[in-house]
Design brief:
The chain is built from 22 helices and 19 strands. It is α/β, with parallel strands linked by helices. Strand 18 (about 725-730), helix 21 (about 745-755) and strand 19 (about 765-770) form a beta-alpha-beta unit. The relative contact order is 0.06.
Length: about 800
């Protein structure tokens, strides 16, 4: 398509045909400008929202679709200034408006985000840096439209001096025309891609900054609330101290210490208020509002699952980072400029004159006619082109090296952020342990106060203060973990579709999991003996999702010493996925032969392998406990009455052999529920086991409900006395369920059992045996015939009448 860039006519054109020709050329030019664009297939959308799709449609020349998408974006968010800017540019290009007025941005009202997409969406729509990037796309598209119509020849008709005479000049490059237009179009298309990449990079930067500012604001609010609680306790402690000093029960130094703590607390409060004010000012500035504008923020936390390995994070970063896209576009722009520069020389100017004038400015219209040519042809054109080519090659090579440098910088950022996130998880884990210690200290102090045996009258008050400080430490580490998560997602390339808000207070989730399992009552465990799902990532992810749906927060996963070495990668991957979903995994094993002929050392060797596995993997890819399932009553020797006590002593010896492992990991064991009914030397066997372990799972598979309730009452008393946690195991085997093996009846029984024990602090939850049987029950698969024993009522909870 031949279009004229400019037609400058100084003399009056009276020929109608010439006027019609000029109008035709202009119309063709407008059509070309309206349809020209880039191929959107090679452009990566920043996040796929309505405005981003409209921006790509605009870059592709689909102005009608871009207009519809922009209106949709304004409907979703009327305060989206980006959409307003783009809509004005679209309307002006379509000729619907002659001039674009620069309207004042509307004032953003009080804003309460309910999810991270909403926060980032509002900020992205009003942030000056993002809007500047949008105007960069508009500018690049104008450059593309100009390149589409900027082709020769250029004709200028000018009056020649005074008073008469006409000079007509025709300028045409020998290598111009369509070839030059093609090179310019290519350069302009790459410029649009670069502008879109710059827009995506601006979105990344603003998203990261906004999320960090949001987390700072929420963390500061939580810290201030914690400080207020601590200040109340310190004031109470100060009042008690004054009384004790007055009556000689304490030294005056105690009052001075309390006053110093209050002063330090006031200093920390001032710092938290400053952090909150700064974070709000940053959020307002990002939304292009005055820094002191009112803003209200709900206390929530981010939830996002990073890649399972550093290699996966690097792969995602190379695919997602717009900074790398921008660098690649700059390299292609330099290549396009190289092609364009090769077509500039030589040039040829043709001219013609009609009329003339002399030195006295006397002219004669009929003096004569002449024409000629002016050419610009460098004498050393080959060396000149060679030098320019070398220069362009050097520039391209520099940009290629810069692209590689950016790739290396991204790699360093990803590795640093990934291990920073991993370190933050470890630090949070240690603070959780500190919170557990503080909780136990408070329980002891409260018990001593009730028993009136406390030596220090302020012990309970101090324990409460220590607990608040431990909770605050967990809170701060938790938000530190959130910040590291934002940093990691930023280095990878934030995908807003994968980031969600935790609706509940994240401090609850951060402080709810201790080493022996979730501390909140009613959570469930599950035995898993078959582990083929570990070999395939899809199966592993499905399994973890199923655990969350079924409210299972602890998995007893069967592993062997060989698995810990040969399947280390698969195990670490599963442990990482489980940790992200707040699911703990215990290393389960148990061989009955460990009780025979002094083979207890085999159990110690297994425990040692689990500890070594943990030492080779970072926190989040470690087992939370060693779980032993050795049942002496299943051995053939148990059938001999004289051998029963011998096997029980061998079992106790096994637990003693595992004692050194408890220094590194908690020890959890499976025992039959009748252990609470049997005695050895006048001591209940369940009490002996509890004193040698950190948690016990009582398998109440074949016990009637009345007897089970009595045994559970004994177990509860022993667990409270020994400060040990216990699980109640139930069977999902259809042969153990009656009168009807229906999943809804089984679920109702679980809820009934949980409700009866939720008030017991030592109760860890209900454990289901096992995954295969539980899955079959949920799916309605019956592997047993009616004559295989369904009529027997073996499950304790199964005696409940059918509901519904």
């Amino acid at each position: 398509m031949a279009c004229a860039r400019s037609i400058a006519v100084r003399t009056r054109l009276s020929s109608p045909s010439m006027v019609r020709g000029c109008v035709s050329v202009l119309l063709v030019s407008l059509c070309g400008c309206a349809t020209v664009g880039i191929d959107p297939a090679g452009v990566r959308a920043p996040n796929g929202r309505a405005f981003d799709a409209a921006l790509i449609d605009y870059a592709a020349g689909n102005l009608n679709q871009a207009q519809v998408g922009t209106l949709l974006a304004l409907e979703e968010n009327p305060l989206d200034s980006r959409a307003t800017d783009l809509l004005r540019a679209i309307l002006k290009e379509k000729g619907l408006v002659d001039e674009v007025d620069r309207a004042v941005d509307p004032q953003l009202p009080l804003f309460t985000p309910s999810e991270p997409e909403e926060l980032v969406r509002v900020i992205s729509g009003r942030n000056p840096a993002v809007r500047e990037a949008v105007f960069g796309v508009i500018e690049a598209r104008a450059f593309l439209r100009e390149a589409n119509v900027d082709i020769g020849p250029e004709i200028s008709v000018l009056t020649r001096f005074y008073p008469l005479g006409i000079l007509s000049r025709l300028t045409q490059s020998l290598y111009g025309g369509w070839w030059e237009r093609k090179a310019r179009m290519h350069a302009a298309e790459v410029a649009i891609i670069e502008a879109l990449a710059n827009y995506g990079r601006a979105r990344e930067d603003v998203s990261r900054e906004s999320l960090l500012a949001y987390l700072d604001a929420v963390a500061a609010r939580k810290r201030l609330a914690s400080f207020d609680r601590e200040r109340g306790l310190l004031d109470e402690q100060q009042e008690q101290t004054i009384v004790h000093v007055r009556y000689g029960r304490s030294l005056p130094r105690v009052s001075l210490v309390t006053r110093r703590q209050i002063g330090a607390l006031q200093r920390d409060q001032a710092g938290a208020r400053q952090q909150l004010a700064t974070a709000k000012a940053r959020l307002n500035a990002l939304m292009n509002r005055p820094p002191t504008a009112p803003i209200r923020i709900t206390a929530q936390g981010l939830l996002w699952g990073p890649p399972e390995s550093v290699d996966g994070a690097l792969t995602a970063a190379y695919a997602n980072r717009f900074a790398l896209d921008e660098a690649q576009a700059r390299t292609r722009t330099a290549e396009a400029r190289k092609v364009l520069a090769a077509m500039k020389d030589p040039t040829l100017d043709l001219y013609a004159t009609y009329g003339g004038s002399n030195t006295k400015n006397e002219s004669s219209f009929l003096k004569g006619f002449s024409f000629g040519a002016i050419t610009r042809f460098p004498l050393a054109i080959m060396p000149l082109k060679s030098a320019r080519e070398d220069q362009d090659d050097a520039i391209i090579r520099q940009l290629e090296l810069r692209e590689q440098q950016i790739r290396n910088e991204i790699a360093v950022e990803v590795v640093d952020a990934y291990y920073g996130w991993d370190t933050a998880r470890t630090e949070l884990h240690h603070e959780r342990m500190g919170l557990a210690v503080a909780s136990e200290d408070l329980r002891v102090a409260a018990a001593e106060r009730r028993a009136e045996i406390a030596d220090d009258p302020l012990a309970l008050n101090r324990a409460e203060i220590d607990l608040i400080r431990a909770e605050r430490a967990v809170l701060e580490r938790g938000y530190g973990l959130q910040r590291s998560l934002v940093e990691l997602s930023s280095t990878i390339g934030i995908d807003l579709k994968r980031i969600k808000f935790i609706a509940a207070d994240p401090a609850i989730a951060w402080s709810s999991a201790l080493m022996t399992g979730p501390s909140s009552p009613g959570t469930r465990g599950l035995w898993v003996w078959r582990t083929e799902f570990l070999d395939h990532l899809d199966d592993t992810e499905f399994f973890v999702d199923l655990l969350r749906v079924r409210k299972i927060r602890t998995v007893f996963l069967y592993v062997t010493e060989s698995d810990l070495l040969s399947r280390a990668h698969e195990l670490a991957r599963f442990l990482d996925l489980a940790e992200r979903r707040h699911i703990q995994v215990q290393a389960l094993n148990g061989e009955h032969k460990w009780l025979v002929n002094g083979r207890q050392q085999l159990a110690a060797r297994f425990a040692d392998q689990v500890i070594k596995f943990n030492s080779r993997n970072p926190y989040g890819r470690q087992f939370s406990a060693i779980h032993i399932d050795v049942e002496p009553h299943t051995l053939q020797a148990w059938q001999q009455p004289t051998r029963k006590e011998e096997l029980l002593f061998a079992y106790i010896e096994l637990l003693d052999v595992l004692k050194p492992a408890r220094a590194s990991l908690p020890l959890v064991v499976d025992v039959p529920v009748w252990f609470a009914d049997r005695q050895i030397d006048g001591i209940r066997l369940s009490d002996i086991v509890m004193r040698r372990t950190d948690a016990v799972v009582y398998m109440a598979y074949g016990t009637k409900i009345d007897r089970r309730n009595k045994l559970i009452a004994r177990i509860t008393a022993e667990a409270s006395a020994n400060s040990r946690r216990f699980w109640i195991g139930v069977s999902a085997d259809r042969r153990h369920l009656c009168p009807q093996p229906l999943p809804e009846i089984f679920e109702a029984d679980l809820q009934e059992l949980e409700a009866s024990l939720n008030a017991v602090s030592a109760f860890a939850g209900v454990a289901i045996h096992d995954f295969d049987r539980y899955r079959d029950l949920i799916l309605g698969i019956d592997k047993y015939s009616p004559a295989s024993g369904r009529g027997h009522c073996l499950q304790a909870g199964g005696t409940a009448p059918a509901r519904g």
